[in-house]
Design a protein that fits this description.
- The chain has about 160 residues and is mainly α.
- It has two domains: about 5-60, no CATH class; about 70-150, no CATH class.
- Helices cover about 50% and strands about 10% of the residues.
- Helix 1 crosses helix 2 (about 20-30) and helix 5 (about 90-105) runs parallel beside helix 6 (about 115-135).
- The longest helix has 18 residues, at about 90-105.
- The protein is globular.
- The model has no long low-confidence stretch (mean pLDDT about 85).
């Protein structure tokens, strides 16, 4: 899972005048009955963040042990630290596809060659997690308040 800010972050973003109407509506529909203290600051507020937050909490309520991670970090670990910035769009996506191809080769699995950036982000988490798990090189950082964060020791 991707890192998810506390609910107060989403509350403060939903109250900002510049907040998109659909994001405010989603927040209100999901969390209007909860008393939440706003946490000012931060950067963006997207439907992906909000759905990630809701998914993380739902899985937690079901007793599923969940982990958060950063796709950017996993791409860098899998590629020796170098990663083409996303702002270069096409070059960045091509670079990520190349890294994914090399991870698939190590795991001896196939997959589609034409991934979107979001699909590449999701796949690198799955592939590096599978590879590191197989090699017993997963690091889990746990905190009661923040949850579990997973990092591959080597991809």
């Amino acid at each position: 899972m991707f890192p998810t800010p506390p609910l107060g972050y989403f509350r403060s973003k939903s109250l900002e005048p510049a907040c998109k109407a659909h994001l405010r509506a989603i927040y209100d529909a999901l969390f209007c009955d909860l008393e939440v203290v706003s946490i000012p600051g931060g950067g963006t507020f997207t439907r992906f963040m909000l759905s990630g937050f809701a998914c993380f909490r739902a899985l937690e309520l079901l007793g599923v042990k969940t982990y958060e991670s950063f796709p950017d970090l996993e791409f860098r670990l899998a590629n020796g630290g170098a990663l083409t910035p996303k702002r270069t769009r096409r070059l960045a996506l091509d670079h990520r596809r190349l890294i994914i191809r090399s991870l698939r080769l190590k795991l001896r699995i196939d997959g589609p060659s034409q991934l979107t950036m979001d699909q590449a982000d999701a796949e690198v988490l799955a592939l590096t997690g599978a590879l590191a798990s197989r090699e017993r090189k997963l690091l889990v950082l746990a905190n009661k308040a923040e949850g579990n964060f997973i990092v591959t020791a080597a991809a």
